[in-house]
Predict the structure.
Amino acid sequence: MTTLSDRIAPEILRKRPTPRIRTERLVLCEPRLEDAKTVATLLNDRRIAENTLRIPYPYGIADAQAFIAGANANSGETVFLITKRDATVLGAGGVAERPAAPPEIGYWLAVPFWGRGFATEAVRAMIDYAFDHLGYEALHAGARVTNAASRRVLEKCGFQWTGVGLYRTRSLASSAPFDRFRLERGLWIAAPDGRRNRPARR
């Protein structure tokens, strides 16, 4: 019998520490293999996959296990599981470095949690982490042009539209247009307190 650890290269299993961030309603923490079943159930939804670049559809337990096992193995990427304070899993997000370009911030939320402000709260926390703890000077983000809700999240967080690009979408096996956004550290630092989202104390 082959276990997950047999299939994952040893260097992938040597993960770097991931911070635990608490906001008013959420906890952003490192994904755990015991969350794989929940992640697979939430992500096996075409409406999520078609608005992202890398998430396949259908999405099964093996996909979730591979995602969690590889999360934070790369020193240039920080991946968070997004949960409520009671540990209910809502989605995931993260910040990833890219060659010759500012780091990219991304996220997904399960459909039952759309439209309740959770995405904005989580993205603000990841922005604070990227600028305050990782020292980045700018962040990029993207949203499919048909995904008005995700564009609003980015705009509420201060991201500015920079144009449209065509990107390969795994679930569609074809390319789709995505709006591109950029946020400068100086603009975020100078933003009103209402835009920023400082982690709540434990």
User: Anything to note?
Assistant: The helical segments are 4-7, 10-13, 36-43, 46-49, 61-70, 118-133, 148-156, 185-189. The longest helix spans residues 118-133. The longest strand covers residues 174-184. Confidence is low (pLDDT under 50) at residues 1-14, 198-202.
